[in-house]
Amino acid sequence: MHFSILLLLLCVPMGIILKYYGDTNQMRKIYIFSFFSCLTILSVIRSLNVGPDTEGYYILAQEIHYDSWRSLWRETVMRYLHNTGDSDMGYYMFVKCLQLISTNFDFLSVVACAFYLIPLGKLIYRYTTNMSQILFSFVLYSVLFPVNTVSPNRQLFATGFCILALLALSDGKFIKSVLLILVGSLFHQTALVFLAIPCVVRFVPRWVKKMHLLSFFFIPVSILYASQILLLMSSAVGNDRYAAYADTSNSGGGIVFSVLLEVMSIFCYFGIKKEQIESDRRLLILYAMTPFFTVLGPLIMQDGAMIRLSKYFHLYLMMLVPLAIENVFNKDSIKTAYGILIIALILMTVTQTGGLVFEPYWNDPYIHDVAY
């Protein structure tokens, strides 16, 4: 079964049933906890060949298990003090520490989900006020991000730290926010791009709406000069691994995703007013994502792996789009708007070809040997 469809079959009935019993804060908590618990369970029972890199991380976990502490420590020192190599050694060391408790790959998957889903759940609860918003957020998540929790990948941990950084920033803790992003970059170096958010919010908060408008004019630049942008970013961080993404032979995909991303960006621009951003600091922090995913989103057409850059920012469309919907439509038509948009997203998912197919380990010929 297509993974997005499976998630929709979980989140939509669950949201409707829970909303029937009351649109309360308690029900919102139960809904968030229940759906994220399902995501965690699915990350454990999936086959190792589900997802683009699940098997690769299983093999990597085996290699870390058999590497000595001395070897890993030496590579860590060389990576961060002498800038040699391109491995994210923070992830290696963290996995090695977890293996003192258990070498089971599913245990690593559960820990990765916890690092990512617990902060995300807190953020969703903070930025929503009713069950309809959360239902729409989860439908959007099912359509755009089904692959996120499939494997205990490096970016899952890095994104979790970035979400914690966002929560700290909304509490007015700028230094803590920056430090959390730097810790996340030890798991995946691309997390450094998220430093733009605390900097924008701290130093140029009044420019956010203008930055969003200007970002639309840079979309053609992102499309036409994607290779050059990726080479520049690679040289800036001193990591040749990312230069490979500039290879034009990998280009040609992600058009539908990019168009959908830009349409939602335009909707957020007109749906969320400048006065709201200036009067609500928490909304400002969330809205600061818009210029970045607007510009970075089209890079996926150069190489599908480049979604990892935009993902740090467009993840928050889960909360931005419902906020824009609440502003655009009046109270009498909000429910109708949510219903139409949810049906449209479901139909788009059902009719699309390809995509991630979910297969439980007991139905797959691949030997699911999770212990090493």
Please outline the helices and strands.
Elements: H1 3-20, H2 25-45, H3 54-66, H4 69-81, H5 89-98, H6 105-127, H7 131-144, H8 154-170, H9 174-187, H10 196-203, H11 208-217, H12 219-224, H13 226-237, H14 255-271, H15 274-279, H16 281-287, H17 290-296, H18 307-314, H19 317-328, H20 334-351
Helix pairs in contact: 1-2, 1-7, 2-6, 4-5, 5-9, 6-8, 7-19, 7-20, 8-9, 11-17, 14-17, 14-19, 17-18
Q: What characteristic shape results from the CA principal axes?
A: globular
Characterize the main sheet.
Answer: none
Distance between the termini: 29 Å
The tally of strands reads 0
Walk me through this protein's architecture.
The protein starts with a helix and ends in a 21-residue tail after the last helix. Helix 1 packs antiparallel against helix 2, helix 1 runs antiparallel to helix 7 and helix 8 runs antiparallel to helix 9. The radius of gyration is 20 Å and the shape is globular. The protein is an all-alpha fold and 372 residues long.
